């Protein structure tokens, strides 16, 4: 059913994702209903397909965001802290922030400064207070290195493909903690890395995917590209 969940509204899109069995946890349904994808995608917001957000970046298809939130739900509980690598237009960061609640925090890291600014504008449409009180923080930087200034995270989501095991990101996971990341080159798979309370890491391949690669800023956006 993936790629077939297009709706005419945010609510219809989320209901289709639920009916398709892509999102199975009520907290994920609630978060995706509360965060309107239309605030974060410049066009085709409710189509179940990736959309360009400018600067050589895309917002992933809704079904991939649904899969990600469903798989991370256990580590997006109220009061937890999370990192969204390659946060793009800020949509998934906002969904994660909805799930961790007012006592939690989500940091979105993106190496294109213009997208960081766009994320702040997008979030401010409905939740300017989240930026003011620190529930959400968007930063410009190389997400491949994580964001060690934020200490350790219960959950890390990566929105672009890592060429190999993301060692530095896994180092920044709490024990226990979970990392959702596409890994590979031409052939990619979603890998869920779980760190147990003793710091041991187990990896579980989930599904084949096709994401844009985690890459250098100047390779993704050499300049002159406008959304």
From TrEMBL:
<dbReference type="GO" id="GO:0005737">
    <property type="term" value="C:cytoplasm"/>
</dbReference>
<keyword id="KW-0963">Cytoplasm</keyword>
<keyword id="KW-0489">Methyltransferase</keyword>
<dbReference type="InterPro" id="IPR000682">
    <property type="entry name" value="PCMT"/>
</dbReference>
<comment type="similarity">
    <text>Belongs to the methyltransferase superfamily. L-isoaspartyl/D-aspartyl protein methyltransferase family.</text>
</comment>
<keyword id="KW-0808">Transferase</keyword>
<dbReference type="Pfam" id="PF01135">
    <property type="entry name" value="PCMT"/>
</dbReference>
<dbReference type="GO" id="GO:0032259">
    <property type="term" value="P:methylation"/>
</dbReference>
<dbReference type="GO" id="GO:0004719">
    <property type="term" value="F:protein-L-isoaspartate (D-aspartate) O-methyltransferase activity"/>
</dbReference>
<dbReference type="InterPro" id="IPR029063">
    <property type="entry name" value="SAM-dependent_MTases_sf"/>
</dbReference>
<keyword id="KW-0949">S-adenosyl-L-methionine</keyword>
<protein>
    <recommendedName>
        <fullName>protein-L-isoaspartate(D-aspartate) O-methyltransferase</fullName>
        <ecNumber>2.1.1.77</ecNumber>
    </recommendedName>
</protein>
């Amino acid at each position: 059913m993936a790629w077939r969940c297009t709706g005419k509204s945010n609510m219809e899109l989320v209901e289709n994702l639920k009916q398709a069995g892509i999102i199975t946890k009520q907290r994920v349904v609630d978060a995706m209903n509360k965060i309107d994808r239309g605030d974060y995608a410049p066009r085709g917001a409710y189509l179940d397909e990736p959309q360009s957000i400018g600067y050589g970046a895309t917002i992933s298809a809704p079904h991939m965001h649904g899969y990600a939130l469903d798989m991370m739900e256990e580590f997006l509980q109220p009061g937890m802290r999370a990192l969204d690598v390659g946060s793009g237009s800020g949509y998934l960061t906002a969904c994660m922030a909805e799930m961790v609640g007012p006592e939690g925090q989500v940091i979105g890291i993106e190496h294109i400064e213009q997208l960081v600014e766009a994320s702040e504008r997008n979030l401010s449409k409905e939740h300017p207070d989240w930026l003011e009180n620190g529930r959400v923080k968007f930063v410009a930087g190389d997400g491949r290195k994580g964001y060690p200034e934020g200490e350790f995270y219960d959950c890390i989501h990566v929105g672009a493909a890592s060429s190999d095991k993301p060692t530095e990101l896994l180092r920044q996971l709490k024990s226990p903690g979970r990392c959702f990341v596409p890994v590979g080159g031409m052939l990619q798979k979603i890998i869920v890395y779980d760190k147990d309370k003793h710091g041991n890491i187990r990896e579980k391949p989930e599904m084949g995917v096709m994401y844009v690669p985690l890459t250098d800023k100047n390779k993704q956006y050499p300049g002159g590209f406008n959304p």
